[in-house]
Amino acid sequence: MENTLENSTHTQAKLQKLLDDKLYIGDLGTKGFIFKRNFGTRRMPVYGILNKNHFEVKAKNETIHDYFMWVAMILMLGILLFAAYHKIYLVVVANSIFILLMFMMDRHRKKKEMEQFFKAFKEASIDK
């Protein structure tokens, strides 16, 4: 599984190291963790949910961003239907491309956030 981390004291120490080095802000608890980068723009929270002996790691939009995306999608679909009804094909094509780009941008951001988290996790060194 590519988006998992084993639940061990070494893993928890590395996660704590990310918080101590102030690379991430967040909470490391007994049921998992939620981290958010402490730098850069357009940061997205990374969740680690504890399942038996491993953390399942996911990047997820904040709630307000999810609501904005759904409202924008509904608005864009409304414009798409209106333009299709009135046979304004240029608007239909442009709107369809915009909707597709919104989905692709969101997916790309999640993938990039996961890559940055795993890179930072891999580079965190623990003094023994």
Structure description:
- It contains 3 helices and 5 strands.
- The chain has helices spanning 9-20, 63-85, 89-123; strands spanning 4-6, 24-28, 32-37, 46-51, 54-59.
- The chain is an alpha+beta fold.
- The chain has a 5-stranded antiparallel β-sheet.
- The two termini are 28 Å apart.
- The longest helix is centred in the last third of the chain and has 35 residues, at 89-123.
- Strand 4 and strand 5 (54-59) form a beta hairpin.
- Helix 2 (63-85) runs antiparallel to helix 3 (89-123).
Instruction: Name the overall outline.
Output: elongated
Q: What's the helix count?
A: 3
Q: What is the alpha-carbon Rg in Å?
A: 19 Å
Secondary-structure element pattern, one letter each: EHEEEEHH
- Give a count of the beta strands, DSSP E runs of length 2 or more: 5
Query: Class by helix and strand content?
Result: alpha+beta
* CA-CA gap between termini: 28 Å
Unreliable segments of 5+ consecutive residues: none
Percentage of residues in helical conformation: 40-55%
Largest sheet: 5 strands, antiparallel
Q: Which band does the percent of strand residues land in?
A: 15-25%
Give the overall pLDDT as a whole number. Answer: 88
Q: Which strand order do you get reading across the main beta sheet?
A: 1-5-4-3-2
